[in-house]
Amino acid sequence: MTNVWRHAVVLLAALACMWTGRGEAGVVIGGTRVIYPGQNKDVTVMLENVGKRPRLVQAWMNRADDSSAPDKAKVPFTLTPPVFRLDPGKGQAIRVLYSKEPLPQDKETLFWFNVLEVPPKAKSGDGGVMQFAVRTRIKLLFRPQGLQGSADTAPEQLSWRIVPDQSGKGVALQASNPTPYYVNFTYVGVGIDGRNYEHPGGGMVAPRTSAMFPIPDLNSLPSNDVKAIFETINDFGAVGKHQKPVGP
Questions:
Q1: Pairing between strand 227-233 and 239-245?
Q2: DSSP H stretches of helix in the chain
Q3: In terms of pLDDT, which residue wins out, 75 or 64?
Q4: Residues whose CB is less than 8 angstroms from the CB of residue 191 and which lie 6 or more positions away in sequence, other chains included
């Protein structure tokens, strides 16, 4: 690696630790998530510069509970190339290679795939323009071979309950996931007597765990029939709509 690229890596690592503010992303990732089949030697993630100016790009991965800078993240994957220039209208394939370090073989493991882009220095005629580095990240799911069931059917395996919210105020919808797959939501809500009460935002529930979704506008436990209304995202980014009875 040349000295120029070494300095670029140091700069990008520092920028990744900073609040990047508002910026316009010129580099887009091909897909909403990456699935890494455990039997694969590698997978490919495609990037494209849809902007009008070149970008300096760095890609790295970290664990779901880790926000480490690129040079500090510890994951069993290698990305090639990790740093590159991407010209306008051009694409770049990034190979993700699994190092075969042990990961759970009975369920999926979640990682984040990160892309940091730095725009070129503003031209002298662009007075007053403030530019920022922009970081984009998507989920990467390591999926071991031979898991029971399928990711497509996992949403229908969820069970739901209405419980007091952990904050001590109001109620929450609790999703329990008996499957080895992550289930990701774009919408979670409760249907009672033809009216919907929504959880603000989406979320996810990890394999063989439960997740809580507070329902701010529902102040007490309902006594009549309740349905969980939720929308999930599949491997290809498509949204599926579901309804299930809420149990006691």
A1: antiparallel
A2: 3-16
A3: 75
A4: 197, 226, 227, 228, 229, 243
Reported pTM: 0.84
User: In whole angstroms, what is the distance from residue 80 CA to residue 76 CA?
Assistant: 14
C-alpha 9/C-alpha 79 separation (Å) is 14
168 falls in which pLDDT band (50, 70, 90)? confident
Phi, psi torsion values for 81, nearest 5 degrees: -80, 150
Q: Edge-to-edge strands of the sheet including 27-29?
A: 27-29, 42-49, 91-98, 77-80
Stretch(es) of the chain classified as CATH 2.60.40.10: 3-143, 154-245
CB atoms within 10 A of CB 131: 15
Q: Do the beta carbons of residue 62 and residue 111 sit within 8 Å? A: yes
| Token pair for 59 | 């890609």
Superfamily of domain covering 154-245: Immunoglobulins (2.60.40.10)
- Domain made up of 3-143: CATH architecture: Sandwich (2.60)
pLDDT of residue 224: 77
- Of 69, 115, 67, the residue nearest 94 (C-alpha): 115
Residues 6+ apart with CB under 8 A from 136: 25, 27, 28, 29, 114, 115, 117
Per the CB < 8 A criterion, the answer to whether 240 and 155 are in contact is: yes
Q: How far is CA 114 from CA 28, 130, 138, 228, in A?
A: 11, 23, 7, 33
For the chain, what is the mean pLDDT? 87
CA 75 remoteness from chain centre: 16
* Residue 84, burial from CB neighbour count under 10 angstroms (0-12, 13-18, 19+): middle
